[in-house]
Design brief:
single chain; alpha/beta
């Protein structure tokens, strides 16, 4: 991989994809190929094959996915499993057919079992039952991991996977029906501040612990891994992917307090215990990536401040 390599970045308009695009550009990569959703439907195999036939990308990054929080995952279950498997299968198979030199697939930490030991090591994959509320999405991401692994094992393709922790940052999805924890909290607490509401209700008990990483750090990690890790070194250690995270977690209750402070909201935070908590704790073991020479840089408070600033400029009314 060099600065002249033809890099196809799927999902460049999303939070993660746009951050990767910025990081590649910052590091001097000049030949980044992108297509909007209007230009290319990644769930249509023929359309994906046509793109690969036309541009012949050397490097492929799959940051495209249908994503959402607990509500979206539990409501649009068929869409989450179908759309994501279609996207992954079409791109990975096209990269094989047109002999791309390297492929990086971005998954999700929800691939690990609900009752997994903490922190979660890469080898804990497929050792127990998944969390029911996001099982379809998790299954789709496991399919992507196994596609990469087995295209290497059968065809010696340099296809690898990374599993990020919960991500947040600029260009996040702040739609309250489909957003993840941090953008949903920022939106709800900001709205309460604007309305002078005396309280904000957060789903669940507030007791679960979650790990969060700023998306610009994730983008830097992806480029680092593309430059530093090959399929042969990954799969020879009997692991199928690399975890990417901070190695630190926080309770949902303390996260709500932090965001309340960032937004400067004076009301109370309440919790609706009738709503699902999801997995009680989800923390990645990131020692393998740290040993390769990469670690996160942005602390949670600073990342939330930057994300709230972006929300104020781009989303709030």
């Amino acid at each position: 991989m060099n600065t002249e390599s033809k890099i196809y970045l799927a999902g460049h308009q999303g939070m993660v994809g746009s951050a990767i695009n910025r990081e590649l550009t910052k590091q001097g990569y000049r030949n980044i190929i992108t297509r909007s959703r209007k230009e290319l439907d990644l769930t249509r195999q023929a359309d994906v094959e046509t793109l690969f036939r036309e541009v012949r990308p050397e490097i492929v990054i799959i940051a495209a996915a249908k994503v959402g929080g607990i509500f979206a995952n539990n409501t649009f279950r068929a869409e989450f499993i179908y759309d994501n498997i279609a996207i992954e299968t079409n791109i990975i198979h096209a990269a094989h057919n047109f002999e791309s030199e390297k492929l990086l697939f971005l998954g999700s930490s929800c691939i690990y079992p609900r009752e997994s030991k903490q922190p979660m090591k890469e080898e804990y994959l497929l050792t127990g039952e998944l969390e029911p509320t996001n099982e379809p999405y998790a299954v789709s991401k496991i399919v992507g991991i196994k596609l990469c692994e087995n295209y290497y094992r059968q065809y010696n393709r340099n296809f690898i996977s990374v599993m990020p922790t919960n991500l947040y940052g600029p260009n996040d999805n702040f739609d309250l029906k489909t957003s993840h924890v941090i953008p949903a909290m920022i939106h709800r607490i900001h709205d309460a501040k604007v309305r002078n509401s005396p309280s904000v209700t957060v789903w669940g008990t507030g007791k679960p612990r979650r790990e969060f990483m700023y998306v610009e750090d994730m983008a830097e990690a992806c480029v680092f891994i593309l430059k530093s890790v090959d399929a042969s070194s990954l799969y020879s250690r009997d692991i199928t992917h690399l975890n990417v995270g901070t190695g630190n977690d926080i309770t949902i209750a303390n996260l709500a307090i932090l965001i309340k402070e960032v937004v400067d909201y004076k009301g109370k935070i309440k919790f609706d215990a009738r709503k699902p908590d999801g997995i009680i704790r989800k923390l990645l073991d990131v020692r393998r990536l740290n040993e390769l020479g990469w670690a996160y840089k942005t602390n949670l408070r600073d990342g939330c401040i930057t994300t709230y600033d972006w929300f104020l400029k781009n989303f709030s009314k």
